[in-house]
């Protein structure tokens, strides 16, 4: 079944659960305009901030040997803390997306996401050094018109970074029914022939971001795209 929590972060042959801000409730977030959409509901304090070099790979993993159960897109964001990340609640226009997984067409479906438990992304080398939250967001679309959000955050300290300055969003504030209509459609009938949300939703932070493809080396990911190519994900 679906796990509510990405409770482990892996990097450089290491792993941590202590860097995760764990929510108190095993339930999805349903109000995408409320503060709990940032890192989930009633989260406990993380006791670790992991140091990782820009350009490194990280993997976010579901807990309890669970996998993605409900269909819908998956994204990973970075949010730069204004100071110490341990003191930041995620507020402000400080978030940018570094990875996303979406549906395939012909036939339409999220089979490239369903059943997976780990999602891997490269921290762009252009990301400035500093302390960050890394945020996972899987949007479950099994109830037409009422998306559910499975989110969690981990604490990072990025070293050896660059001078990139991507456009940023606030969370909440990154989604709306008006600007992201495909998040509210019936994905079962009529079967979607296309799946497109506003540019800000399906936009990666950096042009030409290199995304790791499972078993296929790497590929250049366009800045804006309609159908999201799969990044690394596995059972």
Verbal overview:
Its main location: secreted. One of its GO terms (biological process) is cellulose catabolic process. Keywords: Carbohydrate metabolism, Cellulose degradation, Disulfide bond, Polysaccharide degradation, Secreted. It is found in: Secreted. There is one protein chain. The chain is built from 1 helix and 13 strands, in the order βββαββββββββββ. With 235 residues, the chain is mainly β. Strands 3, 4, 6, 7, 9 and 10 form a 6-stranded mixed beta sheet that branches. It has a 5-stranded antiparallel beta sheet with strand order 2-1-5-8-13, with no helix packed on it. A hairpin with a 2-residue loop joins β1 and β2 (14-16). The two termini are 13 Å apart.
Produce a short descriptive summary.
With 235 residues, the protein is mostly beta strands. The protein is built from one helix and 13 strands. The protein is globular.
| Percentage of residues in strands | 25-35%
Summarize model confidence as the mean pLDDT: 83
Major beta sheet summary: 6 strands, mixed
Helix content: under 10%
Shape: globular
Structural class, from secondary structure content?
Answer: mainly beta
Number of strands: 13
Keywords for this entry:
mainly beta, 1 helix, 31% strand, EC 1.14.99.56
List the helices and strands and how they pair.
Elements: E1 6-11, E2 14-16, E3 20-21, H1 36-39, E4 50-53, E5 57-62, E6 74-80, E7 95-101, E8 118-122, E9 130-140, E10 148-159, E11 210-212, E12 218-220, E13 232-234
Parallel strand pairs: 4-10
Antiparallel strand pairs: 1-2, 1-5, 3-10, 5-8, 6-7, 6-9, 8-13, 9-10, 11-12
């Amino acid at each position: 079944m679906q796990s509510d929590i990405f409770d482990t972060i892996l990097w450089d042959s290491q792993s941590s659960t202590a860097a995760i801000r764990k929510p108190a409730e095993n339930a999805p977030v349903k109000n995408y305009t409320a503060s709990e959409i940032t890192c989930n509901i009633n989260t406990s304090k993380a006791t670790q901030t992991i140091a990782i070099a820009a350009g490194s790979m990280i993997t976010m993993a579901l807990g309890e040997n669970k996998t993605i159960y409900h269909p819908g897109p998956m994204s990973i964001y970075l949010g730069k803390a204004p100071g110490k990340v341990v003191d930041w609640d995620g507020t402000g226009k400080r978030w940018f997306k570094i990875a996303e997984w979406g549906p395939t067409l012909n036939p339409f479906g999220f089979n490239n996401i369903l059943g997976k438990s780990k999602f891997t992304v490269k921290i762009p080398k252009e990301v400035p050094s500093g302390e960050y939250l890394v945020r996972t967001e899987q949007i479950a679309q099994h109830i037409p018109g009422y998306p559910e959000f499975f989110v969690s955050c981990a604490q990072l300290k990025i070293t050896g970074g660059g001078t990139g300055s991507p456009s940023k969003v606030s969370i909440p504030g990154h989604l709306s029914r008006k600007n992201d209509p495909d998040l509210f459609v019936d994905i079962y009938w009529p079967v979607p022939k296309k799946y497109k949300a506003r540019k800000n939703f399906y936009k990666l932070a950096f042009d030409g971001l290199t995304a790791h493809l499972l078993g296929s080396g790497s590929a250049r990911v366009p800045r804006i795209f309609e159908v999201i190519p799969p990044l690394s994900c596995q059972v």
